[in-house]
Amino acid sequence: METVYEFVLPKGYVDSVGEVHRRGKMRLATAGDEISATRDPRVLSNPSYLTIVILSKVITELEGMEMVSATLIERLFTADLAFLQDMYQRINDVEPPTMKVVCPECGCTHEVPLNFTQEG
């Protein structure tokens, strides 16, 4: 089973001397990563920071950088952040649960996503 995945950022992280870093590695997330991220003081004061903290835990390498921190993730271009969020969801199989339903009109079986947060 593959647990570490390589990536190439669409734009790249630009460091303090103007060097661009695009290649990196992301590992599968653990339950501990997600639990500890939700307890992070930055997340407690700003829940939208959760993505930053989790990515800083699972991105194990960015070429030429000594370490990957939340501060580094904050400085990524939005295109790179969106790329990494999508990759995180794909490699960790973060998909909504589904349920098989039968259409009352045609009798066909369909698989539909369940959304437990949607009202009505």
Your description of this structure?
The chain is of the alpha+beta class and 120 residues long. The chain has one domain (4-95). It contains five helices and five strands, in the order ββαααβααββ. The strands form two sheets. Strands 1-2-3 form a three-stranded antiparallel beta sheet. The radius of gyration is 18 Å and the shape is elongated. The termini are far apart.
Helix count equals 5
Q: What letter string, H or E per element, gives the SSE order?
A: EEHHHEHHEE
Biggest beta sheet summary: 3 strands, antiparallel
Q: Could you list the spans in which at least 5 consecutive residues all have pLDDT below 50?
A: 116-120
Helicity, as a percent range: 25-40%
Q: How many angstroms does the end-to-end distance come to?
A: 40 Å
